[in-house]
Amino acid sequence: MKGSHFARTRRRSSEATVMLCPLLGACLWAAVLGYKPVVVVHGLFDSSEDFINLKRFINQSHPGTNVTVIDLFDRSSSLQPMWKQVEGFKAAIYPIMQNAADGVNLICYSQGGLVCRGILSTLSDHNVHSFISLSAPQAGQYGDTDYFKVFPQFVKSNLYHFCYTGVGQLISICNYWNDPHHRDLYLNNSEYLALLNSERPNPNSTEWKKNFLKIQKLVLIGGPDDGVITPWQSSQFGFYDDNETVVEMQHQDLYLKDVFGLKTLVARGDLIFCSVPGVEHVWWHSNETVFHTCIEKWLL
Ligand SMILES: *[C@@H]1O[C@H](CO)[C@@H](O)[C@H](O)[C@H]1NC(C)=O
Ligand SMILES: *[C@@H]1O[C@H](CO)[C@@H](O)[C@H](O)[C@H]1NC(C)=O
Ligand SMILES: *[C@@H]1O[C@H](CO)[C@@H](O)[C@H](O)[C@H]1NC(C)=O
Ligand SMILES: *[C@@H]1O[C@H](CO)[C@@H](O)[C@H](O)[C@H]1NC(C)=O
Ligand SMILES: *[C@@H]1O[C@H](CO)[C@@H](O)[C@H](O)[C@H]1NC(C)=O
Ligand SMILES: *[C@@H]1O[C@H](CO)[C@@H](O)[C@H](O)[C@H]1NC(C)=O
Predict the structure, then answer these.
(1) The total number of structural domains that make up the chain
(2) Among its keywords, does the record have Hydrolase (predicted)?
(3) Closest ligand 3 atom to the C-alpha of 184?
(4) Which of 53, 69, 138, 193 would disulfide-bridge 48, Cβ 3.0–4.6 Å?
């Protein structure tokens, strides 16, 4: 049943493609093979409506692509704990994967980039081809920005008092709050990022690394004018040392020890950095230059 449904939907989208662009080789190729479905996971305080432009860009460059923006944990629900979001998004994405014989591509924006990393680490039979991380705080967050006004009584220097507690860990932001001046508290209390990075003892780290490394490409997109992700290099696994000097990924322990596979990906030639200046945080998914420079070619 599943197989025949799949063949039918593929044929339908292929016919549409041929009608749209009968003269273009790329489109004919798409008609024969089909582009992989794209799944989009949104970030903090967003919802699926924020991705209309991205859907348009994909439809224009790769007509016929089936794009699904997962409509879960919208707006203030996006403050729910990260593991809960991982389970929710995973349940929604898994059937899409099962319907996609050639695999899917994932575009995960902002906090969604960390949700996706949780899914990829804990789902042993995922078939994600490109994991596109769009300005996501992959190495954590340490900065006061508009997004963090949910905690009006705190600033970055004292938010650890709240975040590194049992109650704090019920809020998504605290799950990846990474205070470089309170490393011990982070290691002891972060129930998400420290575990995902195996910075905290994780009995499943070997398994998680194996799962994560099933991706074919990791594309890390970010830029210096982001204004929300702090430091912006966190989008590419750079982070502050205890002097708040940014240490690039290549000098981070989690890279050097290949804790979850970053070094393996580099050795395989499958880790791509794409840095773009002049883009504020809320524009990453709607900026056509970003799409053409950093995303388009990884959606095959
Ligand atoms: C894709 O583009 C075509 C041609 O511009 C348009 O007719 C179609 O409605 C678009 N599909 C989506 C899902 O945006
Ligand atoms: C697009 O993908 C979704 C999720 O797998 C599926 O329900 C839907 O039927 C697909 N649409 C088309 C036109 O193939
Ligand atoms: C972290 O946990 C260990 C073991 O439970 C404890 O000895 C240590 O004091 C904790 N450190 C902090 C900063 O809470
Ligand atoms: C490790 O995996 C097991 C089995 O999948 C699971 O029950 C357990 O919660 C995982 N441990 C952690 C720390 O996530
Ligand atoms: C931090 O800064 C101090 C004073 O500038 C310096 O002595 C120290 O070596 C620095 N530490 C690191 C880890 O760079
Ligand atoms: C889109 O990105 C380009 C840089 O590639 C930048 O110059 C431009 O200002 C951006 N536009 C918006 C609306 O962010």
Answers:
(1) 2
(2) yes
(3) 13
(4) 69
Which of 13, 78, 110, 234 is catalytic? The answer is 110
Task: Calculate ∠ Cα 207-230-162, nearest 5°.
Answer: 75
Range of the domain at 82: 35-298
pLDDT in tens, the chain (300 residues): 333 333 333 333 444 444 444 455 544 444 445 899 999 999 998 888 899 999 999 999 999 999 999 999 988 899 999 999 999 999 999 999 999 999 999 999 999 999 999 999 999 999 999 999 999 999 999 998 776 667 777 889 999 999 999 999 999 999 999 999 999 999 999 999 999 999 999 999 999 999 999 999 999 999 999 999 999 999 999 999 999 999 999 999 999 999 999 999 999 999 999 999 999 999 999 999 999 999 999 998
CA of 115 to the centre of ligand 4 (A): 17
113 with 78, same domain? yes
User: In this structure, are 262 and 121 located in the same domain?
Assistant: yes
> What pairs with residue 132 in β-bridges?
107, 219
Give how far the C-alpha of residue 98 lies from the chain's centroid of Cα atoms, to the nearest Å: 20
* Pairing between β-strand 271-275 and β-strand 246-247 as defined by DSSP bridges: unpaired
- Specify whether 43 is located in the same domain as 25: no
